[in-house]
Design goal:
Blueprint lengths: L14 H4 L23 H4 L45 E4 L2 E4 H5 L3 H10 L2 H32 L3 H23 L3 H10 L4 H22 L8 H10 L5 E2 L2 E10 H5 L8 H23 L4 H8 L10 E5 L9 H7 L11 E2 L3 E11 L2 E2 L2 H31 L5 H9 L23
Antiparallel strand pairs: 1-2, 3-8, 4-5, 4-7, 6-7
Helix pairs in contact: 5-8, 5-14, 6-8, 9-14, 11-12
Length: 434
């Protein structure tokens, strides 16, 4: 994401507001003026999805520069999720390229909906403020670079290649976010008044921008010296070392499972009885393991822990990665050899048996082994510096509409926090869980 340092110098207002439309204009789309000169982006400014059914405090708005108006959202605590929250302008033009509320929300709305259900109000305000700002900055950066890229890749062959890449990018989203189910993705887009064609067009722009920046700056990356490689290796030792890891196989019986209540609520005699019963069960489990019964089968039979149904398999863990009642099990694990099974371990609130499955020793790459990785990372860092400087130069010269008003329009459409006073979103409702 890019921080846009020069918004305050921008002067262009959103076109759809510049014609002083009445309030009713935004309720169900708008009628284009029948006469008068048209900007090249006239059609985009009047598309239905740029006019969601939300109230607007005034149809003229305020200048893009100058002092912030009263009630403007300039910090997280200013965000008001109630009915009287600021509405703003639902389209932002960056050098004539349009960015809409839906463009901003589509990649992040499901994450915001999840955070709205789980975060405190203050935390959610901070998260929304940061996430929405970053997403707007990113889309503005894409817009200014896209204007350069589309001139370079104007031939039909290049366009066909980018069409294929856009299809691949959209397919990846469907596979990773929606389990490969197109219907779920289409329902998500429909909730935002978007189509697959809209998303493919956006993906194509992003692919062109990525290729343009790569072609522009990758060839400029210089070969780092051996001294620079050595300095990086010394300064980032953790990047070239991996700790030991081991597969934790666990049969555990939490005492609260035997008691049917928290350990702290049990009398000493009750606790002693529960501990005795748990030990008897684990003794039988150990006998079956010693007789050759597979660990997974024994775990499913005797374990009462959270991974019992998975045969007690916790996967590979590293030292110190488990806390609470499982910290002792992890400690015991790294005292075992691969395939070795522990005796019964009696912890304060749990009894358990540990088996060490796959054991991966710690690894540290030598400087010679790490050089190729370091060269790649230094090249990436140099590329990122040049790319960011270039984008900032383009943004500094760009004509940008009312970013603050647009920011508030996005805030008006984000999922509402799970609070009794929260009002439903004017544009987006949290998606149903799969």
């Amino acid at each position: 994401m890019y921080t846009i340092a020069h918004w305050i110098t921008c002067r262009l207002t959103c076109f759809w507001l510049s014609v002083a439309l009445p309030l009713a204009y935004c309720a169900a789309g708008c009628d284009k003026p029948k006469e008068g000169p048209k900007r090249p982006d006239d059609a985009a400014a009047h598309a239905h999805r740029y006019h969601p059914e939300v109230r607007r405090a005034d149809a003229i708005g305020t200048p893009a520069s100058g002092p912030a108006r009263a009630g403007a959202v300039t910090q997280p605590s200013d965000i008001n999720f109630g009915e009287n929250s600021a509405i703003g302008c639902p389209v932002l033009f960056v050098n004539g390229e349009s960015i809409t509320v839906q463009d901003v929300l589509e990649p992040i709305v499901e994450d915001l909906a999840a955070k709205a259900r789980t975060m405190s109000l203050a935390s959610y305000r901070n998260y929304v403020f940061r996430t929405v700002n970053n997403q707007i900055d990113y889309l503005a950066s894409v817009a200014v670079v896209y204007q350069e890229a589309k001139q370079k890749y104007s031939d039909e062959k290049a366009q066909q290649a980018f069409d294929k890449e856009a299809d691949r990018l959209v397919k990846d989203v469907i596979n990773h976010r929606y389990g490969g189910i197109n219907a779920r993705y289409e329902a998500h887009l429909k909730s935002l008044d978007l189509t697959t064609a809209d998303i493919k067009a956006r993906a194509k722009r992003q692919a062109m921008v990525m290729q343009f920046l790569h072609d522009q700056f990758k060839p400029l990356a210089r070969e780092p010296s051996r001294r620079e490689l050595s300095q990086y290796y010394q300064a980032h030792p953790d990047e070239f070392a991996s700790p030991a890891s081991a597969q934790l196989l666990l049969i555990d019986i939490p005492l609260e499972k035997e008691l049917g209540k928290p350990v702290g609520q049990a009398a000493p005699a009750e606790l002693a009885g529960a501990r005795e019963r748990a030990r008897a069960q684990l003794t039988r489990a150990r006998e079956e393991l010693d007789s050759g019964v597979e660990f997974a089968a024994v775990a499913r039979k005797y374990s009462k822990g959270i991974r019992a149904s998975a045969g007690g398999d916790w996967g590979e863990i590293t030292p110190g990665s488990l806390t609470g009642r499982w910290a002792k099990a992890a400690e015991v694990l790294f005292q075992l050899k691969a395939g070795q099974i522990s005796d019964i371990v009696d912890n304060s609130d749990t009894l358990f048996i540990v088996k060490c499955g796959k054991l991966t020793p710690a690894v540290k790459l030598t400087f010679e082994q790490a050089q190729e990785q370091i060269i790649g990372r230094l090249a990436d860092e140099e590329f990122n510096r040049q790319r960011d400087a270039y984008v900032q130069q383009l943004l500094a010269k760009a004509t940008v509409g009312r970013r603050q008003d647009f920011f508030e329009a996005v805030l008006a459409a984000v999922p509402r926090p799970a609070a009794p006073t929260a009002a439903p979103s004017a544009l987006v409702s949290p998606p149903n869980e799969p």
